[in-house]
Design a protein that fits this description.
With about 230 residues, the chain is an alpha/beta fold. Helix content is about 40%, strand content about 20%. The chain contains 8 helices and 11 strands. It has helices spanning about 15-25, 35-45, 60-70, 90-95, 110-125, 160-170, 175-185, 195-205, and strands spanning about 5-10, 30-35, 50-55, 80-85, 100-105, 130-135, 140, 145-150, 150-155, 215, 220-225. Strands 2-1-3-4-5 form a 5-stranded parallel beta sheet, sandwiched between helices. Strands 6-7-8-9 form a 4-stranded antiparallel beta sheet, covered by helices on one side. Helix 6 crosses helix 7 (about 175-185) and helix 6 packs across helix 8 (about 195-205). The chain is elongated, with a radius of gyration of 21 Å. The chain starts with a strand and ends in a 6-residue tail after the last strand.
């Protein structure tokens, strides 16, 4: 299994080395860049899975780099975790506004850093649906991108297809809107929770006679069930 590559952008070599050692011991592949130029060279050569970006850097600041990467189509969705010695609330907000997914204030523990990295990577990686799932007479095939009801094909949009795949893989369980955003969209930083309702409505319209299988659980979220009277 490929180790997640983490680019450490940090001008203090002692801190960078400490982070790198801890990452290596925990199944990551660290790469170090001491300033913005070096970081850009690494990113141009190979896109990492996540960037640990120090706020205070010589030359371009971490904030400027984050803004620059968010504007570029290739790095727009690159997970960024900001390292900052600034504990002030306005600075944290500025970091998130610049496009950071999360921030971590120095000094921090290894466990906290690893937990934050894993959380950001988890949010960024949508669940993969197994090739074929069947619930009752409803079937979904990711290889052919087809959905059928009683053997008849149904026309389902790409987002609705992903949503249905996730619900079918975890049938009978109730999922909150936030959970669905996390698992289906992969990163809900910029997406309203109400977006889920819109896609559920569209999914039901696409399912036609099988629509009752997607149940609304009042105050909790949604569930796909084979128990529905279809």
């Amino acid at each position: 299994m490929k180790k997640p590559r983490v680019l450490i952008v940090e001008d203090e070599s002692s801190i960078a080395e400490l982070i790198a050692v801890n990452l290596r011991h925990n199944g990551f592949e660290p790469i170090w860049a001491e300033d913005g130029d070096a970081a850009q060279r690494e990113i141009d050569a190979c896109l990492p899975d996540l960037v640990l970006l120090d706020w205070m850097l010589p030359g371009q600041s971490g904030l400027q780099l984050a803004r620059q990467w968010r504007k570029d189509a290739r790095t727009k969705n690159l997970p960024i975790l900001m390292l900052t010695a600034r504990g002030d609330e306005p600075d944290k907000v500025a970091g998130l506004d610049a496009g950071a997914d999360d921030y971590i204030t120095k000094p921090f523990s290894t466990q906290e850093m690893l937990a934050r990295i894993r959380a950001v990577l988890r949010r960024r990686a949508p669940e993969v649906v197994t090739e074929r799932v069947e619930i009752g007479e409803l079937a979904l095939d990711t290889a052919t991108h087809r959905v059928t009801w009683q053997g008849m094909p149904l026309k389902v949009g790409p987002t609705e297809f992903k949503l249905l795949g996730y619900l079918m893989q975890h049938a009978e369980r109730v999922h909150s809107r936030a959970q669905l955003l996390d698992k289906v969209w992969g990163d809900h930083v910029y997406i309203e929770e109400r977006t889920v309702d819109v896609h559920v409505k569209r999914l039901r319209e696409s399912l036609g006679p099988a629509a009752p299988m997607v149940e609304t659980v009042r105050g909790a979220g949604y569930r796909l069930t084979s128990q529905a009277t279809v």
